[in-house]
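Re: beginner question about structure tokens

> Can someone show what the tokenized structure looks like for a real chain? I only ever see the sequence side.

Sure, here's an example I had lying around. Input first:
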Amino acid sequence: MYRRLASACLLVSLAACSSMEFPGVYRLSIDQGNIITQEMVDQLKIGMTRSQVEYVMGTSLIRDTFSPNRWDYVYTLDDRNNDKKEHHHLTVIFKDDKLSEFTTDIQPTAQQDAAPATEVQAAE
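And the corresponding structure tokens:
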């Protein structure tokens, strides 16, 4: 009697630790880092101060101690309900405390009129 009860408890506890997924269970989307939107990228202009960039983009996630003129913004979204993963990266580089260039995987909609075409890079 006790052996069957112990076996049943052991079986239930092992089943609870398994990776079985129950249908219809809502799973939360997990987003991490700094949110990077098209509107934020469009507001970045060459020549902005550090405080202006921080106002538009927020506090950067990664500030390199060996390169204080480089800020990195990273955003990942793991939508577990749709099995969709999204990843964005933005690097901002300053010279003389002014924004000199930025690279991102989000293409700016309008060309930056204050910067030559070689300074603004959008990687895909």
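Each token stands for a local structural state, so reading them left to right follows the chain. Helices lie at 2-16, 38-43, 50-57.
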